[in-house]
Amino acid sequence: MNTFLSQKWMRLLVVLPVLSLTFGCTQKFNDVSATVQEAYGNYIDVELTPEEIEAVPYASAYLKIGNQKQVFVVLAFAESNPLTGQTQLKWVSADKAMVVTENGHIVKTIGLQTTNLAGVYGDIPAYSDSPTQYALSYDWSEQHRYGFQAQVERSRQGKETVTTPISSTETDVYTETVTFPSLEESVENTYWVDRNGQVVKTRQHLGPNMVPVELTILKGYSKS
């Protein structure tokens, strides 16, 4: 079977069972959003104290889009991606916007006040000292732009400490150049990765000529 068609069928098969769980997922989504909004009505450009961050019963992060003010988001879902076997983390704001990450990469967005990602597809390798190359496919929901192939080149740049109200983490800094041959455009993304291989901060472009999205993890996700 054609590889492109196989991938399309796989995406459809992934969507179908999810639709049957829509009500339950929507309820959880709304509950989490309501929790954030009730606790932090002024959630835009918020600066939380260590006590406030620890009191939130979810993993949490700060989200910033371009030059806009900082937003507080919490983890609503941690679900396995059937296509890759990796865990996808779904971060939700009080106004029900969502950012989905996998291995630190933003792979989908909903409700952002910018161009939203319908999906990023492909295997995202673990972070290592050696330069890495791999391929991804990008879909953007605006104007129904799908299947844009991207070549990614990743390299380690050095070390840097990421400081939040509740932690100070020594990280390895990686940059990725994402090139879209059909568009003759490229973007550069940055990842701050801790000693366990977890991305604790990232600054990414959702596509060419799009403002960067920055996510800084406050209280990280733990499988336990």
TrEMBL record:
Q: Does the keyword Signal apply?
A: yes
State the UniProt keywords alphabetically: Signal
Q: Please state the span of the N-terminal signal peptide per the UniProt entry.
A: 1-20
List, alphabetically, the InterPro entries matched: GfcB (IPR021308), YmcC_sf (IPR023373)
Source organism (scientific name):
Vibrio hyugaensis
Q: Does the keyword Signal apply?
A: yes
Q: What is this protein called?
A: YjbF family lipoprotein
Q: Which Pfam families match?
A: YjbF
